[in-house]
Amino acid sequence: MPATRLASLARWAHRGAWAAVVIALLLPLAAFLADRGWGQEVRILSAHEPSVVELNRALWTPGDPVAEIYGNPMSTSTRVLLTSHSTVLHPQEDPSLALLPVAAGGERPLQVQTLWWAVRLGAIGAGAATVVLLALAYFLRRRQRATVPAPSA
Question: What is the rounded CA–CA span in Å between residue 92 and residue 135?
Fold first, then answer.
């Protein structure tokens, strides 16, 4: 392979390594901004039918759990990314509570812990790509130096 071609490939490998470093640094920043912009602490629940909710409201007394009026809670509070806050219920019995009803076969919210897992995986992948591309650039430059003839005096 010509020396100029090897030099060109080495430069592109070096640029790719820098791009992978930038991606590895920007992924956590993007996740943090998404969490701050669209993240909300909610209790996910399997929603009851409207008639069951009305019956539960009639039977509810102060001190009883509020989330059970609207459905079966699936977890404790979970931070999720929401693009639409209209799906979150703030019950009149406890307006500070945020409930997110989720249908059995319907849309599932993206949990923030899942987002951070994907960011960690992406950063590890970008780090591995950086190492591979830097090693490729190193070996291409070494090979280029070996193929360039020594200057004659």
Answer: 61
Q: Could you give the count of Cα atoms lying within 13 Å of 61 in the half-sphere of its Cβ?
A: 0
Using a CB cutoff of 8 Å and minimum separation of 24, what contacts does 147-153 make? 147/1, 147/2, 147/3, 147/6, 148/3
Q: How far lies 29's CA from each of 41, 79, 80, 96, 138, in Å?
A: 20, 18, 17, 29, 30
Q: How far apart are CA 131 and CA 140, in angstroms?
A: 14
User: C-alpha dihedral over 6, 8, 13, 14, to 10 degrees?
Assistant: 110
pLDDT, tens digit (0-9, with 9 covering 90-100), for 112-145: 999 999 999 999 999 999 999 999 989 888 887 7
Where is 111: in which H helix or E strand? strand 110-111
CA distance 133 to 34: 30
pLDDT tens digits, 44-95: 998 889 999 999 999 988 888 899 999 899 878 999 998 778 888 899 999 9
- Which letter does DSSP use for residue 92 in this model? T
Say how far apart CA 51 and CA 67 lie, in whole Å. 16
This prediction has a pTM of 0.76
